Every structure is written in structure tokens, then in C-alpha cells.
Amino acid sequence: MEADKVKSALYKLDNNPTLNNFIESFETFVNTPEGYAKLKELILGLAFEGKLVEHINADTNLIEDLIFSSDKIDDKYKYKKGKELKIIDENETFFSIPSHWKWVRIGSIGHNHGQEKPSCKFSYIDVSAINNSTGKIVIPEVLDAASAPSRARKIVRKGTVIYSTVRPYLLNIAIVQDDFDPKPIASTAFAIIHPYDVIDEKYIYYFLRSPKFIEYVESVQKGVAYPAINDEKFYHALFPLAPIEEQKRIVAKVDELMALCDQLEAQQQQQANTLLKANTAAIQALLSSENSKDDLKNNWQRLADNFHTLYGNTLPMPPGEGRQKKYLVGLENLNILRQSIVQLAISGNLVSSVKGDAEKDIDIAIRNKEEIRETRKLRKDNESYEVVEQFTLPNGWVWCNIGQIAHVLGGKRVPRGYKLLEDPTKHVYIRVTDMKNKSVSMTDLRYIDDDIFEQISKYVINKEDVYVTIAGTIGDVGTIPESLDGMNLTENAAKLVFKGIDQRFLVWLISSQYVQKQFKDAVNQMAQPKLSLSSIKHTNIALPPLEEQKCIVSKVDELMMLCDQIEQQLTMAYDQAEKLITATTKALVA
User: Of 207, 252, 212, nearest to 9 (Cα)?
Assistant: First the structure.
């Protein structure tokens, strides 16, 4: 219902083909991360180009009215007369306005009440007192004169518009909405506008938040880490002056549309949270099937029946702690599904059991480990291993420690003071930052020269090995592309050297929640956040027969490929929506 009201209001603006196309694609527009924020920007852009409400044929001279209004205020408060209002050169204007509007400077639309050093208790309005989403001042801090900060100087009253000139991108803009007691004093971080009586204060407020004014501020502000606009540039900015009655009608229409947008966004967030909870419930049911094949089959079917709703959804993620911005509900649910696929795989619930002898396969892997040690002249592993069962295993599976079936070896850092090379050599130095998506990214690699390679030539990783990151990012796991076979490995990762265990199965196994939890518990016991080689060796893992490992890998890879395809479709839909937003906004608010 609210969406229809917004579209109906926009339909009435004019017979604009671009606008009509936008309205037809309204759901696509708003069902993107920051879609409603962009819609609000569009509404403000249309408002200050005079395209949001019907024009009033007011028989009035706006400039004369403004001068008369300012003279009355200046005479009343004995303010020094401002500079005479001058006609704005058309070359200065930065967008089109209706012919009966006039361009003026922001400095000419209001006045200030001066400054004073507090001499008694006062209500201090600092930047932190602004709610920048509502444009309101939260309860200001009441201070004694002796506690007054040096910035507490600017006098404000009810109806004053305040604009934070420090970090203006935060849009800390507000209207003093109350007669505060004790009297309010604002920080010098604010530019002050107390509007003349031919200017509506909320019309000013909305203009200061509009895309065009934001563009102006960005063009004149100084500083990078802590940008700011000085008062001179602020008050010199152009302002589109409309007749006061038209200002009020614009403000009323913007208020109406903004409220509708807020309602729609709240409904959207509620729908998104419902889908997230539904996916969580479906996954929990799937994982708690208690090895019952019938339960598992039924829960898979329920998931399949709702697959498009849960995973093909392009709704943006609702705000929440730790949640990514510009992210989709479908992508979040897909990530949870991926984790559940791995969990089902390593617990024996993804494929039918395959005949084999896991204990025999492990014995072969142990013998292979000894052969590797003799061939490579590695140090003998004198660790004593003890298995701690993490959960009940399917028939035919066996618990063991990683160190029983694989050598766990570290990488090597380059000599102190040596800077890795950007220009390619024969020797790639694989860093943790290169380890992505269970492989190694081939972009932005770093290299070492022949001399350094000779010093650390023993610390290479082969394509048959598996890496595990042990410092910085801990627990990432993957394999090495064939093109990087035999390249040097950072000291912040370990390699597992083994034979007789399916390599891809071991990767999925180590990425599972129960193995990652063991890593996390081991790291928490260390003074420095680093995963020791010994901790990796003593990590408990469950192994099925080798042939079943291969079947599991085949099924996991198949399902992950489907997830990747859905993610690609969602990403494409998101990109298309972003292009629609950009093109529409540019066309409508030129």
C-alpha cells in the first residue's frame, strides 16, 4: 500500500519517460542495499529542481521580500547590515530551477544571534547531540559555566538550523526544535542559520541534505582524513529560493514521501529478518536429522520447496551488529547453506556410505607419512597422539589426529629488512593475503630473488599439499595451483604433507566448524594469537574410507558449484539494480 502511494505521487510529477520507467522498476530500485537511501536522495533532488509539487503563480518579488524581511530582523536585533543582495550570475548555478524561483546565497537567507561565553548553566549542543538520521537534537548536556568547553559559544534559538562544518559527509544537520531550559549554546563546529520569515527552516534543512548541496560541499571542503568546509564557503553557497507558500508545500510533500519510505524500509527489514530466521530454522532441521535418512530426505525436500525464496532473494540485509553493508539476504543465506553442506559432508550425511576400510586407509596413510619422511629427510615425529571424539560417527568412519596421517610443517620468513619484489622472478613468495577461496589468488603476487631463495629453499609448498593459515587470519585452508608448485611459503602458514587421503576432502574437512573450533580453542590458550604446528597435529578429524571421501568431494563440489551459480545470479541482479539507480538518478536529477 505504501509503495503504491510513493509511486502514485511520482506518477503525478510530469510526463517524463525516464521517471515512468523508474516507477515501473520501483521494486528493483528499492530492493537493493541503500535503495531507500537513494530514493530519498532522488526525492530531494526533484524537490529542489521544482519537480515535486505544482508551482504557485505568486505575484511577488522574492528578492524584495527577502530584503524587507532581513531589514526587519536587522533593525529589531540591531544587527549590522549585510551586503546588498546581488543578482547571481547564471554561470554560477549548478542545476535548473523554475523561472519564478531565484538564486541567492545561503548567507542571505538568515542571520545568527552572535556568540557569548557562558556565564551560567546552559544546554550545550555539540555535534554528538545530533541524531543525523532524524535531524533532531537529542537531550543536550547541561553544563555549568566553569565546565564550558572553549567551543561552546554560538547562540541558537528555537527554529535555528545548525550545520556541522566538520566531517560534513556525516550530515549532522538539525533544527533547534525546542525552547531549551537552560538556554542553548551550540558548538563553533556548527554554521548557524536563523531563517528570515520568508524562508521555511525545514526547507533549508532538506536543501542542506540534498545531493546537489552535498556535491557542492565535497567540491570545496578541505582535508582528507578530517574534511571540513569553512564558514566562508558555506555561506557563499547558492540556495534555490521559492515562494514561501511553495516552500511549505514542498516540505509537506517531502515529509509525506520520507515517512512512506521509512515505513516501506521497516517492512522490508522485517521481511528480510523473517527470511533469515526461516533459513536458520530450515538448516537447523537439516543438521539435526539425527542420522535418520528419512528425516534427512524430508528436510532436504522442505529446503528445496522454498529454495528460490530463501536463496534467490535480492532483499538487502537489515542492519545489525557485524552484518555487512551492501549485502543481500540471499547471499547471507547461501553462506549458511554452504556451511551446512560441509557439516553434512564431514558427518557422513551427504552421500550414501561406500564400502571400504577406513582403518586400513589410515594405516596406509601413516606408512606413506613415514616414506615421505625418509625421502625428504624430515625430522622424525615423536609426538604422542590421543583421539578425542567430537561426535558419533557413521559406521565405517574412524577418528584420528591430523599429525598421524600428515607432516605439519611451517613456512619461512624472508630475512629481516628484505623487501619482497613486485617485479616477477622465478620464485613466488606466497603470503597469507594471497590465500583466498581455498586456493591462491594470482593477482598482486610478490617475489624473491635467487639469493634469498637459496637461503629458504627448503620452505616450499607443493601442489599435493594443503595449506593452513596460522597467524593473522587463522584457519583458512586450501591448495596450491599447479603453476605455483614448489614456491616459497610464508611463515604465517603451515603445510600438510601427506599421501593416501583425498586432498579436497581434507580441505573441506579442515574448513568445517568442528575443526575450526579446535583451532580457535588452541589459539585462545596462547599469549599471542597464533596457531601452533603442534595444535594442528593434535586436531581430531573423522575419516571415512578413501572411496567415500571421493564421493563426498564430488557431491560437495557439485553443490558448491550450484551455490556459486546462484551467487553469481544475485550479484548480477544487484549490479544491474545499481546501474539502474545510477542511470535513473542521473537522468532525473541532472
Answer: 252
CATH fold label, 62-242: Adenine-n6-DNA-methyltransferase TaqI; Chain A, domain 2 (3.90.220)
pLDDT in tens, 31-47: 777 778 888 888 898 89
Cβ contact 48:208 at 8 Å: no
DSSP bridge pairs for 493: 469
pLDDT at 84: 46
The CATH fold of domain 358-544? Adenine-n6-DNA-methyltransferase TaqI; Chain A, domain 2 (3.90.220)
For residue 332, give the C-alpha cell: 547471507
pTM: 0.76
C-alpha cell at 482: 599447479
How many angstroms separate the CA atoms of 190 and 178, rounded?
18
How far are the Cα atoms of 15, 430, 489, 490, 533 from residue 414, in angstroms, in the given order? 67, 11, 10, 8, 19
For 188-201, write each residue's pLDDT tens digit: 999 999 999 899 99
Side chain identity at 343, as an amino acid letter?
A: Q
What would the pLDDT profile of 401-446 be if each residue is shown by its tens digit? 999 999 999 999 999 999 999 999 999 999 999 999 999 999 999 9
Q: Cell triple for residue 546? A: 578413501
What is the residue type of 331?
L
Domain with CATH 3.90.220.20 in the chain: 62-242, 358-544
Nearest by Cα to 547 from 343, 346, 357, 342: 357
